[in-house]
Amino acid sequence: MANVIPLNVSLDRAGSISTLDSLDFARYSDDGNRETDERVAVLEFELRKAKETIQALRANLTQAAENEVPLQERKNYKSSPEIQEPIRPLEKRALNFLVNEFLLKNSYKLTSITFSDENHDQDFELWDDVGLNIPKPPDLLQLYRDFGNHHVAARDVVDVSVGVDDDELEAATPILGGVPVFETTPPSIEQCLIVQKLEDQISVLNSEKWSLMEQIRRLESEIDFLKNENFAVSTVYGVAPHPSLKQVPLTVSEDNGRYLDMKSSENDNKHGNTEETSLSLSAEVDSRTSKDDTLNSVPCKETEKLSSCASSTKATVHFDKPNRKLSPAFHQALLSFCRMSADSRLGSEVSRIADSEKSVMLMLGRCLPHIVPNVLLAKREELIPLILCTACLHPEPKERDQLLHILFNLIKRPDDEQRQMILTGCVAFARHVGPTRVEAELLPQCWEQINHKYPERRLLVAESCGALAPYLPKEIRSSLVLSMLQQMLMEDKADLVREAVIKSLGIIMGYIDDPDKYQQGFELLLSALGDPSERVVSATHQVFLPAYAAWTTELGNLQFHLIPTLLNKIEKLLREGEHGLDEHKLHMYLSALQSLIPSLFALVLQNAPFTSKAKLQGEVPQIEVTRFPRPVSPLQDVAIIIGSREQLAVLLQLYDYQLEHEGTTGWETLLWVVNQLLPQLIEIVGKINVASTACVHEFSRFFWRLCRTFGKIFTNTKVKPQFQEILRLSEENIDSTAGNGVLTKATVPIYATGVLTCYIQEEDRKLLVGFLEDVMTMLSLSHAPLDSLKASFVELGANPAYHELLLTVLWYGVVHTSALVRCTAARMFELALRGMSEALVDKRVAPALVTLSSDPEFSVRIATIPAFGTIMETVTQRELLERVKMQLASFLEDPQYQDQHSLHTEIIKTFGRVGPNAEPRFRDEFVIPHLHKLALVNNQQSVDSKRLDIATHLFEAYSALSCCFISEDLMVNHFLPGLKCLRTDMEHLSPEHEQDRDFQEGNLKGAGPPHVPKDEPVGKKTGLAEQRSFDWNSGKKGEFMTFGKRGSKSGGLQGCHEVKAGRKLEGPKLN
């Protein structure tokens, strides 16, 4: 038993031994006890710090509770003693505690319980619940007995801070002046009333004492400022000054004096003499004294007496000389034990608290550079007002520059809201300091950050240039600021920065008045319009261009330089773009012209003969909501350009009357628009390639905005006649040899969609319908190309509001007596069907196509095939699809169409176009089988040219359909046999296409070689148009992908069209 080891040792749990990393070597080291001791020491230190923090918080909480009533309210109570100050929370809790204590001591227990319940938020067991560090007063009985022992004699006194004159002081009554005194009133009652009044005032003054501490300290700092450094400490800490110091002059401002609690006798005020004022200063020697000692020994003057003349703002303060015989050296040695820190920067600032506005600015200028780095980045915008105010009022230029530098570098990457705050401050700064200081102090800060690495900083610079533009000297606006913005526009890579630059340039253009800068502004405008960023271009149209146009109008260059220059650039583009038009630049210039239309119309109104008559008298006419196109920005609103909506309404009324009754005589600006601008625009329109859909659309929108802005009367009397004169729509002018006349150019679609669609009344729609019917008739009868008519249908068909109108035009062609017109109408149905509702297709289009499909002329019937194909591609209604299928089947199976080569060609092209996008059932059951039949028939064609033509179109159709999901049976029975027939035609007629055909068939045979021997049975090896092989044995399907274009004379293999909902593919299994 003696060898048994007691198992009282605790074994630490070890970590996993799977890895050495899991071992905690420090845990099992010999230094474990030392680590524990260090940990205990750290915890003890943290506990001491926590206790100190709690003590400081308790003191702050008590002082906050004492000062809850605002200072201004306490002033009001002091000036009107009859108004009693509301009870404060701290006072209420103290009184509650004393009342409850009184109830308990005098056996009012039930009342005490009820009182406690009504004040459930207070703990009556603990006095500290009333307030931290608050001494407990005597009970209510002692307070009451002590109250009767106070007897204060009434005296004629006045507070020197209110500046009472002698006459007012003589008329002043005693404290009891408001209470009538009768001879029969016993003296004891009179004294009690006087005491009560005085006690009320004492209570108010005591409550105000704490709030005046800061003001008193300011006065003490004035004393310190006038004393030499050797005696500064004696003033702050309440020690008597050097005996040789008999008088210290003190300058008391009128603002500071009103906060001093000082009394002066009437006689002293009358004689204007200065009485020696005694100041007793209590020093706080030990910071750990009790709260009672702290309250009784505050570091401020308890009683101050100052004699002052009413008309003087300066006074001399005398301090009591101590009745001691200590040497000055002893005083200095004694004061060295005071805990002061004047050696450090912060200690120096504290020891010389500001005593004037100038010194406040100096102090802020010294302290702010040290404060800013220690403020959280997310909260630094709170310093902006302080920095700006200091920079605005600081007398030292170097310090102001440093503060503004801090402002622009305050936040590393300021967000939008922070930038707005900084800009607001900069504008306020500029308003106060004037243009000279803005130029000398703010602009250098912008220039320094023009190439900053963070785009947010550069964005701030760009926005600052615009915000400060109104407050800069005009020479600087047109030179330095303009150059800064130009540099940023050309060099900055951030879209947001360039966008801000454009907006600031617009603001600069609103203030610049140097005509020499006009050309520079125009170059900047062209650079902004050609910017690759859509944001920058949009800002140009919204801000820069309207502001530049306003300046151009003032200079008289709008109609003589800006607009003509843009037109000349468009004409140059069209001349140089015969082999390839730069549509981007055309859009750039034309959109700029479009944005100038409101400014041009405003100029027309302002230079009209009736301008002098445009006066706001009586009831102002209302402007229709749809009178003008919606502006892209407020700066393009004609009402804002003119000045007001009321003024514009009066001008519009006179404008319409002038056009309708008096004409344009003497109206130079409008005559320029009619005689020079419109003819040049119409000439440009005739040079546009009608096949360029984008150009047609841009010019259509331009003419639409132009006509809407200038009004209906102007459009009907000035614009339409010029177009009609050029077009000359009359059947007498039909020339079958004029294949390239004006009707084949872009003038037709632009006039139809840009001018005739401006207004939608019935007569306007009839005019548009009649124009399109005439164009269709004339183009058909003259055998001219239909590109202009097609462009009109495409542009109008994009808006569903014109679908009914287009069908009306087409029905006119359906019932026309000429087969050429009917054939044109049939071909136009294909374009009109795009985007049309199925209800219209069923009710209006299908009957018209069925009518045309039975036309006596085969050319008309053939022309309906593309439209039928489009229906199969776009419509989902089952009954309608069946009707179209039956019609196409009649074209293929009716014996009368067996020898119609053009019909077969049109059907094959239509199948290749709509097959990939058509309904899968229609494609599998109708399209692919009939392609197989057409390929078989083409093998028997005796005319080589027709055979080659059909084979070429079959090749294109099979290329398009090869990317679709095709079932095994369909692949074996129709698709590959059709390709074999096509190969036979290619080998016989076009050997150069054999390689393309072999490549296609090889892709369709995933496992076999590209070339299939002639004697091999069809269907033995099948595949799909895919770049990945298909594993038939495993049943795993590869990705279906289009094969590329091989490049042949006939066009080679085409890319697949978009395929509708996929169908599951099942491939044949090979043995």
Layout of strands and helices, then pairs:
Blueprint: H1 32-66, H2 71-79, H3 89-105, H4 109-118, H5 140-147, H6 166-171, H7 187-209, H8 213-226, H9 232-236, E1 248-250, H10 254-257, H11 266-271, H12 291-296, E2 315-317, H13 328-335, H14 345-351, H15 357-371, H16 384-393, H17 397-408, H18 416-433, H19 435-448, H20 455-467, H21 474-491, H22 495-509, H23 518-529, H24 534-555, H25 558-576, H26 583-606, H27 638-642, H28 645-662, H29 668-686, H30 693-710, H31 712-727, H32 747-755, H33 762-781, H34 787-797, H35 803-814, H36 819-832, H37 838-853, H38 858-863, H39 865-874, H40 878-893, H41 901-914, H42 920-939, H43 944-961, H44 968-989, H45 994-1004
Antiparallel strand pairs: 1-2
Helix pairs in contact: 2-7, 3-4, 15-16, 15-17, 16-17, 16-18, 17-19, 18-19, 18-20, 20-22, 21-22, 22-24, 23-24, 24-26, 25-26, 25-29, 26-30, 29-31, 30-32, 31-32, 32-34, 33-35, 33-36, 35-36, 35-37, 36-39, 37-39, 39-40, 39-41, 41-43, 42-43, 42-44, 43-44, 44-45
Biggest sheet, spatial arrangement of strands: 1-2
Helix content: 55-70%
Query: What multimeric state do the chains show?
Result: single chain
Number of helices: 45
* Helix/strand/pairing category: mainly alpha
Residues in β-strands, percent: under 5%
Number of strands: 2
How large is the radius of gyration?
A: 49 Å
Silhouette: elongated
Overall residue-averaged pLDDT value: 74
Taking the alpha carbons of the first and last residues, their distance comes to 89 Å
Q: Tell me the major beta sheet.
A: 2 strands, antiparallel
Could you name the ranges where pLDDT drops below 50 across 5 or more consecutive residues? 1-29, 152-187, 228-318, 736-740, 1006-1071
Coiled coil: 33-67, 195-229
Biased composition (Basic and acidic residues): 259-274, 285-294, 991-1000, 1057-1071
HEAT repeats: 845-883
Main location: Golgi
